[in-house]
Amino acid sequence: MLLRELEYVKPDSVDEALEWLGRLSDAGLLAGGQSLINVLKMRIGGYQTLIDISKLEDLKRIEMVGQGIRIGAGVTYDELLHSPAISLYRPLLQEVALRIADPQVRNRGTVGGNCCYNDPTCHLPPYLTAIGATFEARGPKATRMILARDFFVSYYQTALAPGEMLVGVYVPIAKRGSGDGFRAMSVGGTDVLNIVAGASTVTLKEDGTIGDVAVVVTGVAEHPLRLDGVESQLVGSSPEPSDVRSLFSALDTARFDPVDDVHASAEYRLKMAPIFVRRALEQALDNARRGLRD
Amino acid sequence: MSTTVTKPRTALWSGQSIPRKEDERLLKGQGRFADDIRRHHEAYVHLLRSPYGHARILSVDVSAAEMAPGVITTLTGREVHALQKPFIEIAPAPGGAIEDYCLAVDKVRFMGEPVVAILAETAEMARDAADLVQIDYEPLEAVVQAEDAVREDAPRLHEQVGSNVVWHGVYDYGSIDAAKQAADRIVKIDRLHFHRFTSTPIECNAGLVEYDPGSGEYTFWCNNTMPQFAAMFMGPALDIPTDRLHFVTQDIGGSFGNKITTYIYLTICAILAKKSGRPVRWTEFRTDHILGGSHGNERTFLDIVVPVLNDGTILGIEARAIDDAGAYPRYEPLGAVIWSQVVSGVYQFRNVKVDYTQVVTNKCPVGPNRGYSRMQHLWMVERIIDIVAHELNLDAVAIRKKNYIKPEQMPYETPNGCVYDSGDYPGSLDAALKLIRYEYWQDRKQSTRGSGKLIGIGIGSTLDSGTNNFGQARIINPDLPFSGNGEVSNVKLDLYGEVVVTIGTTPQGQGHETTAAQVVADILGLNPDQVRVLVGHDNRRNVYTGFSGTYASQFAVTGLGAVRGASLKLKEELVTLAAALLEADPDEVMLRGGTALVDGDEGRSIPFIGLANIVFANNAMMPPSLDVSLNCTYTYRPPFQLPDVERKQGNLTLTYASQIHACVVEVDEETGETKILEYACVDDSGALIHPKIVEGQVHGAAGLGIGAALYESLDYDAEGQMLSPNFFAYKAVTALDVPMMKTAAIESPSPFSPNGAKGMGEGGGAPLHAVCSALQDVMHQSSRALVVDSFNPSERVYRLLHQDEHAPRGVQVISKPS
Ligand SMILES: Cc1cc2nc3c(=O)[nH]c(=O)nc-3n(C[C@H](O)[C@H](O)[C@H](O)COP(=O)(O)OP(=O)(O)OC[C@H]3O[C@@H](n4cnc5c(N)ncnc54)[C@H](O)[C@@H]3O)c2cc1C
């Protein structure tokens, strides 16, 4: 599998990258290349010029900003795994990142690339949607903030406008009494291809009732789907395991429109989706309750 | 991981796990593989492959591609039709009427079939030019399922054959009718399906092909693993004397049989090399390899009838088998007889009737694949054992022990005349059960129920029959001119005193350099470090037979048998020469550490380099009566006779290594996800030359089988589109997917091999049997569904768990009035 011959530029700054992006109509950003290079090898579509942003220092920082952590778009999964800030303030993000493929992929693949590629099997979109991440997009003129639920538009599509790039992702610090969950069904013994995944975050009040909750599923729609109906039923409650089970066994899946492919039938995805979101919520609840106890 | 070895080790090198000689080179990245070979002025091939499963080629226009930068020449099917004779077919009529060329001529018959070859100055230029080739196809209806292919109205792949059936035969041993009469009950199973997968060598197929117009010789630096078999197809196809085909192999990164059928591609390169006058380089990418390399045989078993006694004694098996060869038979239909090496598996039943049909479908051609043809059959046998046990409420362990062939029955002649050399199946099973902590998991199985998880215990009992009698091919086609088997080795004391070993084999990770050196060292009184073993096959070395290569579990017998024979010859020459020079009796001369010396009078000695000097450079000093060359060649020939072609009867293989695997599998009832909690392999490979190499083979075969059972499947849709043509979609097993394994070795020396060893590289597909067996055990505790497919990803397990109680189960037990 050989790529078409193309141009390659390696800007020294985000501004320069944006300049290239604005100047060339058929240029694309190259981050970790773990998805893009494979697409180029298949010669489906493609760019004339690659703008390599993988070494831009500005995109590599993980820093505390107010009540959140700002993760540079160029941070690799491996760098996430080694960040003390993440392990302290959003530990489940490391658990999620650790499940992505293998060390080779984790050494190169980036947070920005994962979100911008937005493949339905990617780990980060559902999780970042659940925890309410915000995406910092920079264009030639301005920077704007995009909420996760608006960022992931459809298969391989994001809210980024032409000429814009993702520079960072704001992840809120996990509050006391909150907990996250992520559960994916993958083909094989390692995660390389999630058939469906569920992600959740729960914040409990001091009395143990749910103050805030997000429940997200992927693999059944063109973007990570927040289950608002379930969320509103959960708020204010302190569900027993059996309550959670009955909530999900009665889940309305009318909005689900899963793909049907060699890895799993649509029917199976439809059956598995409620189970994996439920498990994600159960994990989030466990983590939150443990946090409250400690 | 633990190894239990029952026999104490001796002072010999053979039997010891010495460091592998090839590892230093391989671990330092100093191995030399086919794609590492470079020739001056070489050019690169790109193959344009069919996007359709079945289509007529209306026109091919390469004119724009020929004008593209860097393009040297192109090759189309039309040209090939003029330049190549159709490859020989192993099948007799009607399958023999198939016309197979190296490029598609008028039709494409599988997605990925090469249609146009482009030769250019660089690989990129060849690839870019491919985008300029214009091909008009008329898509045709495809036939993808073997059961559809046999239908009268099915689309035909090869019009000249008259149907999609390329071979049919009935194997009828003992009397299945008498067994049915004698039975207490008859168990009928509607359908079992063994799926299509492959073995995924890390190194894909590759070759560098050069044509020398001066000598008319073609040289193939390649990784084909049975070169003289390839030559048999290529010589007639290229219409040149076959002995002009010069094959050279070097380090090879895995084959598992998959690299045997690369002669198709090497022929493309040969034609291009002659046409262009340039050395032609061809290296597959993974997608090429998965689309158009070689797949394992898919087989469907129908209308299975099993007469049994109430105590669980199995009297026989009757079945129809439909084997799917893909678009062209090529190495097939040899698989149609090879399974019959293990007609009754590890069991005592004597009545077998299999109606065997092989068909072509619009899928990639199959070829030998680790466990080749026997594992499909043995899988069916193991499924039958578990299903019978469950239907009759018998214990899966007890029914095996009741029906296993016993150690005291060895050597055991099977109903079709094969002779199992040695083995202890019940003992192996006991060892495997102990390793998986059988009692513990039997208890846990009960206590786990109701927790959302179910636990199943599985057993896979299987055989790896090694050292083929190629005469069995005559059961397929009586006109085929081969029988027996054999390998050659040359062991030479080189000019400056080094012992150099040459073998005709094509090792791909099996450690031939090490084990050959162990054998030579023991005979010549050397340390294995003092023995140099040349890598790979090279017919210029003049050390090969028609069978040379590395495949079908035979090196320990044929390869080492040849090395042993040649070493013994050299030893005799060395001793004779030394005795003459030292004025001693040959009986008094010993070889030790590279010196010949007189026993008890060690001052009288001469080093090997001195002996070499006398023969090669100083022969006026040689005693005139001596006739030694120190250059000794030996061909090992196993003791085979021609089989009885009429009755399909004969000794088809020399050795029978056994693999009894046991495992504990946990299933998530909600999702169908599986997890292997325990896995144990007990292998009996006869006398072990190098226990660690054997254990490595065991691990590899087990990992591959686990991958096949749970993750790996080559799927096509109804139009013949391949759905898993890359590693994104074809989930090849990795180290992370394989559970910790416990291994143990039992050594029952083979009475038939020169060293007591048995071929064991293929491993019999035991994990497929064991994992399915464990899943069957799970189903027995829940839906009572039958595990009818060899491939069981989560979704399929989920469906089995949730199979409607009232749905037909695909099994019937008919009790006979006593
Ligand atoms: C074997 C293998 C297994 C994998 N398994 C998984 C898995 O289990 N889960 C999972 O989530 N992923 C998996 N991946 C995909 C991997 O996570 C990729 O790293 C990720 O999808 C893309 O990240 P990247 O940094 O490599 O981006 P690239 O491949 O370089 O780019 C991807 C796309 O995003 C665009 N892009 C990149 N950065 C930016 C930016 N800052 N702003 C705007 N656009 C941008 C690029 O232009 C391109 O279109 C796997 C990949 C491989 C090779």
Description:
- The complex is a heterodimer of chains A (294) and B (818).
- Chain A has 294 residues and is α+β, with helices and mostly antiparallel strands.
- Chain A has 3 domains: 7-52, Uridine Diphospho-n-acetylenolpyruvylglucosamine Reductase, domain 2 (2-Layer Sandwich); 57-172, Uridine Diphospho-n-acetylenolpyruvylglucosamine Reductase, domain 3 (2-Layer Sandwich); 178-293, CO dehydrogenase flavoprotein, C-terminal domain (Enolase-like, domain 1, 2-Layer Sandwich), CATH 3.30.390.
- Chain A has 12 helices and 14 strands.
- Chain A has helices at 14-23, 36-41, 77-81, 84-89, 91-98, 103-108, 111-117, 124-130, 148-151, 228-234, 241-249, 266-293, and strands spanning 7-9, 27-30, 49-52, 62-65, 68-72, 134-138, 143-147, 152-154, 157-158, 165-172, 178-186, 194-204, 210-218, 225-226.
- In chain A, the strands form 4 sheets. A 5-stranded antiparallel sheet of chain A has the order 4-5-10-6-7.
- In chain A, a hairpin with a 2-residue loop joins strand 8 and strand 9 (157-158).
- In chain A, helix 11 (241-249) packs antiparallel against helix 12.
- Chain A is globular and about 60 Å long.
- The mean pLDDT of chain A is 95.
- Chain B has 818 residues and is an alpha+beta fold.
- Chain B folds into 3 domains: 34-140 and 204-252 and 260-292, Aldehyde oxidase/xanthine dehydrogenase, a/b hammerhead (Aldehyde Oxidoreductase, domain 3); 169-198 and 294-471 and 643-804, Aldehyde oxidase/xanthine dehydrogenase, molybdopterin binding domain (Aldehyde Oxidoreductase, domain 4, 2-Layer Sandwich), CATH 3.30.365; 486-636, Aldehyde Oxidoreductase, domain 4, CATH 3.30.365.10.
- Chain B is 27% helix and 24% strand.
- Chain B contains 21 helices and 29 strands.
- A 7-stranded mixed sheet of chain B has the order 3-5-1-12-9-10-11, with helices on both faces. In chain B, strands 7-15-14-13-8-29 form a 6-stranded mixed sheet.
- Chain B is globular.
- Residues 1-9 of chain B have low confidence and may be disordered.
- The chains are: A alpha+beta (294), B alpha+beta (818).
- The interface between A and B is medium-sized, with 23 and 28 residues.
- Flavin-adenine dinucleotide binds at residues 28-36, 73, 100-101, 105, 108-110, 112-114, 116-117, 122-123, 160, 165-166, 191-192 of chain A.
